[in-house]
Amino acid sequence: MESVCKVKCHQCGVETYMAFRCPYCDQYSCVEHRLPENHNCSEYWRARAPRKESVKPLKSEPSYKHTITMMPSQLARARGKIIWFSLTELKHLLIGTLLTMAIGFSMPLYWDQGLYSEPLVLTALAIIFTFSFITHELAHKIAAQHHGLWAEFRITMFGALITLLSIISPFKIISPGAVMVGGAADRRTIGRTSIVGPLTNIVLALLFIILARLPSGPLAFAFAFGVLINSFIALFNLIPFGVLDGFKVFFWSKMIWAIAFSASLILTVYSYMAFPIL
Known about the structure:
Helices cover 51% and strands 7% of the residues. A hairpin with a 6-residue loop joins strand 3 (20-21) and strand 4. The protein has helices at residues 44-48, 73-78, 87-106, 119-146, 157-166, 187-213, 220-237, 245-252, 254-274; strands at 7-8, 15-16, 20-21, 28-29, 150-155, 177-182. It is mainly alpha-helical. The chain folds into 2 domains: 7-48, AN1-like Zinc finger (Zf-an1 domain); 82-274.
């Protein structure tokens, strides 16, 4: 991974990893002062000079695209926003939440259709299911932004399609999107950013064990399901393969990976043995 040097903005003096060089005065500026009119460009008259318009061939637009809205970590911290969300990300989070919620409501179709006669339990099950997935992704986002990286949740067309088909299928694949991370990072930063997702699910599984053991009436089933789903999400994501969190954690620290993987495996087995109602 290549190292990135900070460059000081000629206009405001802020040091930034994302410096823009003006093609007219050759000065470096931050993202806010990159335009000639924003950094008092001495050659601004050249930017305003009329140019001959060139005819460009028409290009077909892709059927799907999304814009990466990037805010440098220095600028975010200067504004008092260590953790921030863009409007684009909020839209993608909403779509991901709705798709995951639909999976939660559809699970009793091939599991226990009697749950549809208990709307309280069914709603609690769907909320716990959605909360477990979204919290996992937000944990990655918060950790990445804490380390000064760009991180936003994005829907993927293939993942959203698979998730949509899973609503009517007995086999459930929940992957509407993921947190995209960008910026210069070493092995330790990547590993720490990756481990927080499964750790969050492990903590949630322990919390749901306590709730399931309390006198909670009909919600005991939903809480027991919370133990299972969070244990399984942590276990699956800690598999050291491909793009999963486990590969990046294993590459960073084999000991931490082994501890986290063992904990998620124990919790998954425990959820099946301790809660026979599942």
